[in-house]
Amino acid sequence: MGGSPCRPPGEAVRIVAAWKGSSGPRSSHHLKADARQRREASSLADQQTGRLAQGSVMRSAPQRRSGPNWTWAQRDMPLLHALIRPIHTLLANICDTPTRENLMRSEYLGKTILALSLATAMAVVAGCQSSKVEMAPKAEKAQAMKVAKAETAPKAEKAQAKMEMAPVEHRKYTVGSKWIWREKGTDDVTYTVVSVDDGKTTLQGTNGCKSTFISGTFNQFTSWENCRGGTGSQSFNRNNNIFPLEVGKKDSVNVAGTNSKGNTWSTRMTCEVMGTDNVTVPAGTFDTYHVVCKDKWSRRDYHYAPELGTSVISARSPIGSSKSKPYRTELVKYERAG
Questions:
Q1: Pick the residue with more confidence: 195 or 86?
Q2: Range of the domain at 245
Q3: Is 193 helix (H, G, I), strand (E, B) or coil?
């Protein structure tokens, strides 16, 4: 007797009845046969019960219709997806059982969808209006900036025209003329012209510094004593021709020098009129020519005010790995003698 699941449903009942109706002593052979029959009957009953249960479930669970794919809405229009996705799910459930009540629900949901669509359209229009309102102040601000720029343009042109100064000749210094210079972190120092001789001008400072430079030049000092801790002298192959000052003018000279420490040097110094600047110093505000003189080790900046006939700013800065100490002095007062 086999255990095939293809037996008709009554076969399991017949086997059980035959087993229950048997009587009398049973041999081991019959006992084994009875046990095998009981197992087969139990297996057939379980299989039949499972098929019945599965059929019941399949009959009771209606097949759902697959709805549209809302992936594009979720990606591109999240608001629309959030509004319509729950309604679509509800409609799908209602349409599975088209009773009168569910049809009424479907009509109600249709009206709800229409109302939501109108509300969404109104929200979009309101958002556009709000964007226009927000953009209006920005447009007004941009227009105001444009007007302000147009108003300031003539002022800038006027200032530029003011800085286009005519060429300036050197004004000779006279004995007794005085400068008061201020350097950050130090006391003010007064320099007085003590001699003007043989094309050279000599200054004496209240700080003990005495220096001589070639008249009518920039940065052509021929000697100095106790000036910033040093004493020395130097010579030039010729005087530079930087005067009369005008923007773009340039001149170079050769320099050879020595100091009290036994150091010697030779270099080429170039001075150039870089431009014009309006500067403010303790002595006042002046239109100036900006002159830069460079050699191998340092750069010196001078702001020469034609109004005074002298520089109002003198500064030095090292170049590269030079050990030259930087400084910046500004004019506090200038008194021209004679």
A1: 195
A2: 178-190+235-335
A3: strand
